[in-house]
Structures are given as C-alpha cells and as structure tokens.
Amino acid sequence: MRAVSLLRVAAEAELLRLRHMLMRQDAGGLRVIAAVFAVCVLVLVNVGGWQVLRGSSSRSTQHSFSWASTLDAKVVVPHSG
Fold first, then answer.
1. Which of 25, 43, 56, 81 is the most buried (most CB within 10 A)?
2. Which stretches of the chain score pLDDT less than 70?
C-alpha cells in the first residue's frame, strides 16, 4: 500500500511540475509576440516620422501614381490582321 501511495504522490508532483513548465512557456510566447508587436509599432512610427520630416506625404502619393499614366501611353498592342 505504501508503494502505491508514494507512486501516486510522485505522479501528482510530476504533473504539477509539467503544468508549471507549460504556464511559464505560455508567458514566454506572449512575451515574444509582444516584442514583435512593439518592433512593428516602432518601425511604423519611424516611417511616419520620416515621411513627416521629409514633407513628402502628399507628393509621394501623387508621384507613385504618375507612373501608371505613362505606362498606359506606352503599351503597344500587336495588331492581328
């Protein structure tokens, strides 16, 4: 009887240890996700600040679409006939 009782206590202790390890890993995973999110926010703030300091937030939008009109004019469609 005593061996069965000790075995049960050892199994419960091992389960508690495993649960504790899983809880620590979950918190570590959340920390990694939070760090990635923070880096993304910093990159976006940096790009936004660069755009504001450069003063090209409105001009860059106009410039980026101007190439589309020049490409439309240069498209050569082969004539079948």
1. 56
2. 1, 56-77, 81
In residues, how long is the chain?
A: 81
CA distances from 39 to 28, 31, 53 (A): 17, 12, 21
The Cα-based distances of 44 to 13, 34, 38, 55, 65 in angstroms read: 47, 15, 10, 16, 22
Q: Is the pTM of this model over 0.70?
A: no
User: Cβ distance 44 to 53 under 8 Å?
Assistant: no
End-to-end C-alpha distance for the chain, whole angstroms: 98
CB within 8 Å of 9: residues ≥ 6 apart:
none
User: From the CB of residue 56, how many other CB atoms can be counted at a distance below 10 Å?
Assistant: 13
What residues contact 57, with CB distance under 8 A and at least 6 apart?
Answer: 51
